[in-house]
Amino acid sequence: MNMKGFSCILYRRSSDKDLCSCRNVHVIQEFKAALSEQKIDLKALRELCFSGIPCEGGIRALCWKILLNYLPLDQALWEVFLKKQRDLYDQFLREMIIQPGIAKANLGVSRDVTLEDHPLNPNPDSQWNTYFKDNEVLLQIDKDVRRLYPDMAFFQRPTDFPCQLILDPQNEYETLRRRVEQTTLKAQTVNRNRSGVTNVSSPGKALHLYPSNEYEVLPNGCEAHWEVVERILFIYAKLNPGIAYVQGMNEIVGPIYYTFATDPNSQWKEHAEADTFFCFTNLMSENRDNFIKSLDDSQCGITFKMESVFSKLKEKDTELYMKLQEQNIKPQYFTFRWLTLLLSQEFLLPDVIRIWDSLFSDQDRFEFLIPVCCAMLTLIRDQLLAGDFTTNMRLLQDYPISDVHAILIKAKELQDSL
């Protein structure tokens, strides 16, 4: 795959108003031609996408759905497939959010509560024990998604397509928003000291975990984009109890949702939530081993991948490798975050999305991440060779280069060189 002709001028600012910087009409026409084929040529599409995907006309969002193995290559199947998947997601919402919410609401009006459905039922398999465990996961998700890209207004803004299943004004059941509000209030306003005396905090202190600018919610009938992301992650955690939710997953789902929710085509944009859920699920099926602690030291775990970055560095730049070894700078000190979160915390969102164009289009997407990380090291080699331990750790934990174009070119050179 040729790296010449990277077609995007990369944004280096945090504004979320205009991620679209590709104005090359010829490139756009190439993409439109590739996407107009009845049966998509995946190899040809990958080669196009690797050098950067234009976002005019929702091209990037559509390409990502194909590259993440969500949409079939045969466009004749899309209509039926999409309806099936979106109906399935609605079913997940009913089973995992709506029905438990109805059960909770009914408890307050029913006088005939049996031990089996009582909240104090000690049985670990009871529905209420599950409900309370789910709340623990939900609170962690809620805490993380509120902080998603804090320098951008997007995730705090209302979505144009709030979930009507959840926000129907006729519904009286408990939504995720209410669960978080009620659980947070109970957890923070009542606490028992070591002598067994119960203290009730003042309302002002009760919400100290959520400053006012983070905790504000939109009026009934509206929901912010971060609430949609929260719902996606909660459903994923429920459907994947073996991994559930691990901090950092919010950083993986955020750029996917942003890309789909800003699609100029409203027919796609309307279903950004369901489409994001399935694309995120597909991506996690390839990346989930990084989030499973018991697999850390296996060949598919994160430790092996971190060591692979240093192995590649040793092969390509022995002097720099030896310098890091002498200073006892281990790969886990910085590459854990780089690899696990697909560099989503190292760059601004426009640049993350550009990197992901190349990652998603590479057939061995997570193999390509290794030379990308190695390229990041070699591009600051002079600073690292001159720096002491403290200076170098600061460089690696707050990466100084914002030109992802140069990083990707270098990564491709490292990947292709013998």
From TrEMBL:
GO cellular component: cytoplasm; membrane
GO biological process: intracellular protein transport
Pfam family, one: RabGAP-TBC
Top-level taxon: Eukaryota
Residue ranges of every copy of the Rab-GAP TBC domain listed in the record: 54-363
Predominant location: cytoplasm
Keywords: Cytoplasm, GTPase activation, Membrane
ATP-binding listed as a keyword: no
GO molecular function: GTPase activator activity
InterPro entries cross-referenced by the UniProt entry: Rab-GAP-TBC_dom, Rab-GAP_TBC_sf
The protein's name in its UniProt record: TBC1 domain family member 13
Species, as recorded: Onychostoma macrolepis
